[in-house]
Amino acid sequence: MAASRPPRAAPAPEPAAPAPRDDLVAGPGVREKLAKLGIHSRFDLVLHLPLRYEDETRLTPLAEAGTGEPVLVEAEVVECEVKYRPRRTLVVKCTDGLGELWLRFLNFYPSQVKQMAPGRRLRLFGEVRPGFFGAEMVHPKVRVVEEGAPLPTALTPVYPTTAGMSQANLRGFIEHALDTLLMDDTLEPALLERLALQGFRESVLLLHRPPPDVDAASLADRTHPAWRRLKFDELLAQQLAMRIAYRERRAKSAPRMPDKHTLTNLLVKSLPFALTRAQKKAWATIAHDLAQPHPMRRLLQGDVGSGKTLVAALAALQAIENGWQVALMAPTEILAEQHYLKLAHWLEPLGVKVSWLAGSLKARAKKTALEAIARGETQLAIGTHALFQDEVAFERLGLAIVDEQHRFGVAQRLALTGKGSEPHQLMMSATPIPRTLSMSYYADLDVSVIDELPPGRTPVVTKLVDESRRDEVILRIRESCAEGAQAYWVCPLIEESETLQLKTALETFETMKATFPDLAVGLVHGRLKPDEKAQVMADFKAKRVQLLVATTVIEVGVDVPNATLMVIEHAERMGLAQLHQLRGRVGRGTGRSLAILLYHQPLSEMARARLKVIYGTTDGFEIARQDLLQRGPGEYLGSRQSGAPLLRFADLERDADLIELAREVADAMISERSHAVERHLDRWLGRRQFYLKA
Ligand code: ADP
Ligand code: MG
After folding, report:
1. Exposed end of the chain (fewer CB within 10 Å): N or C?
2. Dihedral, CA atoms, 505, 511, 513, 516, nearest 10 degrees?
3. 460-617 maps to which CATH number?
4. Residue with CA nearest ligand 1 atom 16
C-alpha cells in the first residue's frame, strides 16, 4: 500500500452491505446463529465479551456450600434414579464424604443418566438450596472428573448467546479465536503510555479469562483498565469513521452561494424586531458555509422559541439570491403549514415564489405545484414527506432545509438531498443534543447553537397539579380567557390506541364546550383533514378560538404568541422531550405564561422523575441531558440511528472523558494518515462501517 494513500473511508452506501471479513471456521447453521449475535468474523468473536463470570477456580466443601451464592462442589454419585411423580425427574444423590447433596433435573437426556452413574465423581456448579430431602441443586452445570483433576485457573466467562447456541459451544468458538488470532495493537506504545491505556491483547485476554484474584467489582461495572481500553478502541473507531465521513464531504463539490445581501437584507429590514445576537452568529456561520464550494451539512440547534425559522429563511434567501431552489421539509402537516404561512408572509413581499406541497393536496393543485417546482419557477418549496416522493423533481435544488430533523429517518433525509446534485443541507432541531452525543453520533455534522431566546420573553411557569384539583384549573382558564389570553388543553397520549386517543379528544372537546359556554372552543387532532386542521389553527391564530383542545399534534412548531396558558392532561404519560416541546407552545410572546401539568396518581418512579425534571427547569439542554440519562442513547437517538450500531461497550455519560480522548486521537491519526486508521476500522467496524455513512 502506497504511503501517500489517504485512509480508506467507510464504503459507499450500496443497497447491500459489503462482504464481511469472513474467516469463521464454522458450518452454515452455526454461522447463522453467530450472525444473530452480531458475529461475522473471528475478530467479532474476540469482541464478544462476557456478561458475567462464574468462579470455578476453587472447590467449596458441601458443608459450607449453602450460602445462596453459586459455588463449585465435587462429590461422588451414590444413587441415580428417574422418578415419575409428581413429574418425570432425574434425581441424583451424591456425597463428598462429609455432606450430602441431591441433584434434580426436570429436562434431561438418557446420556445424562449414564453420565451420572453411581461411583462417578462430579464437579457441580450452581446454587445449593435447602430441598425436600436435604441440600439440593437444581439443574447444576455438571462435569465428570477424575480425582485430583486440575481446576481452571481463570474465572469462567458467561456470554450473551442465542437459542441453539450453548454456552459451551460459544465458549469453544471464542477460545479458538483467542488462540489463533494475532491480536496485536493498533495503537503505538508511546500513545498508549501517554493515554495511560493498557495493551489490547492483554485487555481482551483479561476480560475473557480473568484471574481468580481480579477486582470483580471493576469488571462488573466496567471500570477495570481492560474495559477502558476496549471502550476507548470502540470510541476511536466511531470517531475515525465519523471524521472520515466528514472529510469526504468536505472534499465533494457543491454550488457556491455567496451572500449577495440583496434579499437577505430586505428581509432583515422588513422585520418588526432585530435578530438576537445568537441568531446573527448562527446566520453568519451558515452564510459562510453556503459560500463554500462543498456541501454544508449543518445542524442548527436551538431551544423551542429561539427563532430558528428566521435563520432558515435567511439561508433560503441566500440560495435564492444565487438562483437556486430551496426545499424546506417538516415532519407534520401542521408544522409545515405554519412554516408555509410564516415564510410566505415574510418572503412573498420580496417577490419570492413560495410553493406548498403536502400529501393531502388535491390532484390539480398538486400537479400545478409539481410543475412549478420542476420548471424552477418555485424558489422555495415547503412541505412534508411529500417533498421527497419520486414525482418531485427540482430544476436546480441548491439547499435542503429539514426542520425537527430527529423526527426523520436517515433515508428520508438522504432522499431529499438526492433531489439536487449535491445540495447544501441545513437541519434544525429543538431537541438539544447533549455534548457527548454531538461529539459521537453527530460528529460528522457541523453544529451551530442558538443559545438565547428573543428578548422580552418571561419564562413559562410550570405547575404540577393532581388531577383531583381540576376545578382550580378550570377557574384559571376562565380568568385567563377573560383577560384576552388564549389557552391550549392537551389531551392525553394513548399509546396503545389512536382510536381511543381520538375518542378522548372528542370527549374532552364536548366537556370543554359544556364547561365554558361563553368561550369559543376549538378542536385539533391528527385525523382532521388538512384543510380542516389549517382552518382551526387559523381561527386560533386570529383569536376566533379562545380555548384549543388538541392532541399532541400541536407538539412541534405551532406558534401563537397570544396563547399563554397550557394544560397538559396525563402529563405523567409523556416523555421529557415531548413535555418540553408542548410547554414551548406557550411563552412565545411577551405575556406571562403558565403550563399546568395534570397528573394522575399513582406515579411510577420514572414518571415522578420526569415530572421533577420538567418542573425544575425550562432549559432544553438540561432536559435533554436528563432524558438521555433516564432513557439511554438507544431510545434517545430514535430513527437517526436505526440500523446503525450503538455503542456496545462505552457509555456516553460515564465515559465522556474517553470520547474526548478518542476524538483527539482520531483527528491526529487522520492528519498523519496513519496506517493504523484502516486496521483499526476494519477490526472494529467490519461490515458495520456501511451504516455510518448515512
Ligand atoms: P423555533 O426556534 O422554536 O422554531 P420560531 O422560529 O418559531 O422558534 O420563533 C418563535 C417566535 O419568535 C416566532 O413568533 C418568531 O417570529 C419570533 N422571533 C424570532 N426571532 C425573533 C427575534 N429576534 N425577536 C423577536 N421575536 C423573534
Ligand atoms: Mg421551529
Report:
1. N
2. -130
3. 3.40.50.300
4. 307
Confidence band of 693 (pLDDT split at 50, 70, 90)? very low
**DSSP of 292-308:** SSS--EEEEEE-TTS-H
Q: Give residue 635 CA to ligand 2 midpoint distance, Å.
A: 22
Name the CA radius of gyration of the chain, rounded.
32
**Where on the phi/psi map is residue 649: left (φ > 0), alpha (ψ -120 to 50), or beta?**
alpha
Q: Are 264 and 317 in contact (CB under 8 A)?
A: yes
Q: How far is the CA of 122 from the CAs of 75, 442, 662, in angstroms?
A: 5, 54, 49
Rounded Cα gap, residues 683 and 47, in angstroms: 10
Express each pLDDT in 139-178 by its tens digit.
999 999 998 899 999 999 999 998 889 999 999 999 999 9
Distance CA 374, CA 370 (A): 6
The model's pTM is 0.70
Which residue among 309, 337, 342, 586 has the greatest number of ligand 1 atoms within 8 angstroms of its CB, and so is best to mutate?
309
Within the chain, all domains assigned CATH 3.40.50.300 are found at 263-450, 460-617
Ligand 2 centroid from CA 455, angstroms: 17
How much is the average pLDDT of 638-654?
62
Which superfamily does CATH assign the domain made up of 263-450 to?
Answer: P-loop containing nucleotide triphosphate hydrolases (3.40.50.300)
Distance 284 CA to ligand 1 centre (A): 17
- Alpha helix ranges (H) inside 71-129: 110-115
Strand 594-599 to strand 563-568: parallel, antiparallel, or no bridges (unpaired)?
parallel
Residue 155 dihedral angles phi and psi, to the nearest 5°: -65, 150
CA of 183 to the centre of ligand 1 (A): 55
Residues in Cβ contact with 163 at an 8 Å cutoff, skipping those fewer than 6 apart? none
Calculate the CA 596 to chain-centre distance.
Answer: 29
For residue 45, how far is its CA from the centre of ligand 2 (angstroms)?
46
Atom of ligand 1 at shortest distance to CA of 304? 3
- Cβ < 6 A, ligand 1 pocket: 273, 275-276, 279, 302, 304-310, 430, 454, 559, 561, 588
DSSP string, 124-135: EEEE-EE-SSSE
Q: Which atom of ligand 1 is nearest to the CA of 302?
A: 2
What is the percent of the chain where pLDDT is above 70? Answer: 90
Domain with CATH 2.40.50.140 in the chain: 58-151
Q: Which ligand ends up closest to the CA of 404?
A: 2
Question: What ligand has the least distance to the C-alpha of 272?
Answer: 1
Do residues 691 and 643 lie in contact, with contact meaning Cβ atoms separated by under 8 Å?
A: yes
CATH homologous superfamily, domain 58-151: Nucleic acid-binding proteins (2.40.50.140)
Q: What is the pLDDT of residues 426-439, one digit of tens each?
A: 999 877 677 777 77
Query: What is 419-445 written as a DSSP string?
Result: TSSS-EEEEEESSPPPHHHHHHTTTTS
